[in-house]
């Protein structure tokens, strides 16, 4: 009798384990598809969410790119179709389609990419710093972090210079002392040794490029091997702006072009006349 009970328990355990594995595989398949849809949208720089997000809305409603893409996928994919059918018949059940889950997936992918870039730069050991500050649309000051390093492939016998954007840093103040403190904290957070830094590249602003108390000078005091290289594009832009202001003919040309644009841009009838005149001239 006891052997029969033990045998039945063994059969039940096998059935339960099989059901658990089946359920586990189902959710793995669902989450894999959701993750790839989010990855596609973020790599294309497309907004995920729309005005209203609901699977009960018809196809004419703007449910956003994320749910719209999944609805399209459900037409051809039985896994997502079955998942949507279950959600429609069981409102409130687990869906993994909420905005919170979307944001969590995005942060996880961003963290993975960030760590991959850090591993590549750490593998190269020596690197160059690149920082630039600006404000975003929310009028918050932030500083972009970039590194440049040499990638050596011994098997293929190739050497390539890599330049990687690592992210944005929220900054409190824009004086040199505060910026250096923020840079050093970020390097410590990324586990990058300042002594391995071989170059530092900023724009020509006095707070960054100042030779007495600028950011580059303060970094050089901590690591004299970090050679300062100013941004050539920024320098060229400043040269062009200042040179144009010194030449009367150039100032007149650009002033005339701006006046013509302002004149023909409003009303729209003037713009059409200008387009027709240019077309006839060609």
Could you characterize the architecture of this molecule?
Strands 3-2-1-4-5 form a five-stranded mixed sheet. The chain contains ten helices and five strands. It has three domains: 2-97, no CATH class; 126-234, Nucleotidyltransferase, domain 5 (2-Layer Sandwich), CATH 3.30.420; 247-281, no CATH class. Helix 2 packs across helix 3 (78-89). The chain starts with a helix and ends with a helix. Helices cover 59% and strands 16% of the residues. The model has no long low-confidence stretch (mean pLDDT 85). It has helices at residues 2-43, 65-76, 78-89, 99-124, 176-189, 206-209, 215-222, 232-246, 248-265, 268-281; strands at 127-135, 141-153, 158-170, 197-202, 227-230. The relative contact order is 0.06. The chain is α/β, with parallel strands linked by helices. The radius of gyration is 29 Å and the shape is flat.
């Amino acid at each position: 009798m006891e052997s029969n009970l033990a045998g039945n328990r063994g059969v039940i355990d096998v059935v339960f384990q099989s059901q658990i594995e089946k359920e586990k595989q189902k959710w793995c398949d669902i989450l894999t598809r959701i993750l790839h849809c989010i990855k596609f949208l973020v790599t294309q720089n497309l907004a995920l969410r729309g005005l209203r997000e609901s699977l009960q809305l018809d196809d004419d409603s703007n449910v956003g790119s994320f749910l719209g893409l999944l609805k399209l996928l459900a037409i051809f994919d039985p896994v997502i179709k079955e998942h949507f059918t279950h959600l429609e018949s069981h409102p409130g059940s687990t869906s993994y389609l909420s905005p919170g889950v979307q944001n969590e997936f995005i942060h996880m992918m961003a963290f993975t990419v960030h760590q991959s870039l850090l591993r590549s730069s750490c593998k190269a050991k020596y690197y160059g710093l690149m920082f630039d500050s600006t404000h975003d649309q929310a009028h918050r000051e932030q500083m972009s972090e970039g590194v440049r390093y040499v990638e050596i492939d011994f098997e293929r016998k190739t050497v390539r210079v890599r330049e990687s954007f690592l992210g944005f840093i929220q900054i409190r103040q824009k004086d040199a002392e505060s910026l250096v403190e923020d840079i050093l904290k970020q390097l410590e957070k990324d586990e990058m040794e300042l002594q391995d830094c071989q170059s530092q590249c900023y724009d020509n602003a006095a707070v960054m490029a100042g030779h007495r108390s600028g950011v580059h000078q303060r970094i050089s005091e901590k690591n004299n091997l970090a050679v300062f290289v100013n941004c050539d594009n920024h320098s060229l832009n400043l040269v062009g702006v200042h040179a144009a202001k010194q030449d009367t003919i150039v100032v007149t040309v650009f002033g005339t072009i701006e006046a013509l644009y302002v004149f023909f841009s409003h009303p729209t009838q003037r713009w059409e006349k200008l387009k027709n005149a240019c077309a006839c001239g060609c």
